[in-house]
């Protein structure tokens, strides 16, 4: 005779430990609808399933890659409706990659500007400071 066991339930703390997602963030994802609300114990504690764990891991990995909440919502919408198109996911990924490259270019410009400002500074105890002077310069000057 085989014994039927219920799927493993994960309390919110276990979900947090398994995925590295803060407990408050998990609650936030529920509130905004990225995570479906789990069943509750008679005492009111959340009890997540393995499917919740997989979804939260997906969200975490997506956030680690810099995808926005809106982009993740779109991806999950395709998954939930079983309308995943590899082509559409690829398009979204390329758009995201372009945005990341734009940010990297902006950070490089920022790095160059800060290096230039720091190089002008004598680091002395005099009241004149080229960094402060540069920050007070009129834009476009």
Automatic annotation (TrEMBL):
Entry keywords, A to Z: DNA-binding
Residue span, HTH merR-type domain: 9-78
MF terms (GO), sorted A to Z: DNA binding; DNA-binding transcription factor activity
One Pfam family recorded for the sequence: MerR_1
Lineage top rank: taxon: Bacteria
Family annotation (CDD domains): HTH_CadR-PbrR-like
Protein name: Mercuric resistance operon regulatory protein
């Amino acid at each position: 005779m085989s014994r039927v066991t219920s799927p493993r339930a994960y309390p919110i703390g276990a979900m947090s430990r398994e995925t590295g997602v803060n407990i408050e963030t998990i609650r936030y994802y529920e509130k905004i609808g990225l995570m479906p609300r789990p069943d509750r114990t008679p005492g009111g504690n959340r009890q997540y399933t393995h499917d919740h764990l997989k979804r939260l891991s997906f969200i975490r990995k997506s956030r680690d890659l810099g995808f926005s909440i809106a982009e993740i919502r779109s991806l999950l919408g395709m998954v939930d409706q079983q309308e995943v198109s590899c082509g559409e996911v690829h398009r979204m990924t390329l758009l995201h990659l372009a945005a990341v490259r734009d940010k990297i270019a902006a950070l490089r410009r920022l790095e160059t500007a800060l290096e230039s400002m720091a190089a002008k500074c004598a680091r002395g105890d005099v009241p004149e400071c080229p960094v402060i002077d540069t920050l007070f310069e009129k834009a476009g000057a």
